[in-house]
Amino acid sequence: MKSAITLSQVPEAAAGPFVFQQPLAEGFAAAKKHGYDSVELFFPGPDFITIDEVKALATEHDLGIAAVGTGAGMVKHGLSLTDPDASVREKAIDFIIKMIEFGGQLGAPAILGSMQGKWGGDVSRDQALTWLAEALKAAGAAAAKYDVPFIYEPLNRYETNLINHLAEGAKYIEENSLDNIVLLADLFHMNIEETDVAQAIIDAGKHTGHVHYADSNRSAMGMGHTDPAPIVAALKQVGYTGYLSAEVFPKPDADACAAQEIKAIKEALA
Ligand code: LER
Ligand code: MN
Question: Which residues form the domain of 78?
Fold first, then answer.
């Protein structure tokens, strides 16, 4: 397993769980200074910066790109894959495919979190899950061209009513024959929803492809009440070799958070 830390350039998500939000070059430098292997990027969209500029920063600081988030499609542009309006759904999938292409050129997978949306009103749960599966099929195929997976993230009940558990996500992938889709185990969401986080990871088996390594309160691991030992043991048991990524609140400040999180990740991997 490898370490990653979030760098955001989305002002609309300033209150979100993104550690370094200063100008990008400073974020890369801070990630390196703290000893991370890679960064997870949260950008306003695919045209925010050129691939060459990101590659130059990654090379300069000797950091990998773990993943790219698509959440700005929701928080900045109001797009959802399950919106009742077909033209909004179309813009949403277009945004996601472009983010897949952006990440793909960096060798990094894209993540679907908040852009999955919710069912309700004129949209039934079945309808929303059908639209989501169609979008995931397109996303999985687009990502395959770059030899990366597409990452689907079950969220807690306050953020979506579609899929809240890792096991439901695994079943959904299998039942809909979704190729090249992996699950994101965000330990903050799982702390709210799962009966037993470690067991949920074991039950999802090979489907977990990315981890947001957050404590119970979404602070850096070690600042809440999660016991990471059984969770890390579960990840090892299922053969997980991906990232433990710091998608956490920059509390008490970004530097203290980054320092605590890398300490916790190193302990986990020792
Ligand atoms: C994104 O990774 C996530 O976990 C969501 O809670 C953001 O809204
Ligand atoms: Mn997350």
Answer: 2-269
